[in-house]
Amino acid sequence: MASGWPGNTGLPNHAIGARSTSGGGGSENSPVDCFPDDHAETLEIRAIEVTGSRIGDAPILPDLLDQIPDDQPLGIVTADGAYDTRTSHAAIAARGAAAVIPPRKNGKPWKEHTAGATARNEALRSCRRLGRAIWKRWTGYHRRSLIEAKMRCFKLLGERVMSRDFDRQVAELQIRAVILNRFTALGTPLTQRAE
Fold it and tell me: Which three-class secondary structure state does DSSP give residue 34?
């Protein structure tokens, strides 16, 4: 089977997931730091991009990944099927990460011979061979629920953006992300295994 998947790559147990949520006058697209095993360490929002409602999620993924310093490795990037685009896969491959993005149900193999296209075609073949449910379990796609929970917490800080000016809206949402990261850091227990 495929050897390039998160469970058997030897990549760092470090992942990022993309999730968007609508709010006020725009949409916040924020990758959330999460770890593939059951012991999530930080769950911090590491990048946030605020766009108008007419801009989709996938085109801004490269901008989001650029916000994370190159010296911080990404092992896995998990996102929903809206990110199954050439641009998204190329940006993820450029960062040396594995993409866990379900291919579209009517997806066809890409003819390019790039790292992103190869990974996506491998996911497509695996989905067809194993079925989507088994593919999702095999790749750990279910970890996306941590991202969904984080975005719910983000929304609990306010469904709407109070500012009217776009630049102030961006600042307001970035402040919310900093507050949420601080709450998360304060509320995350430090546990150690008893020996």
Answer: strand
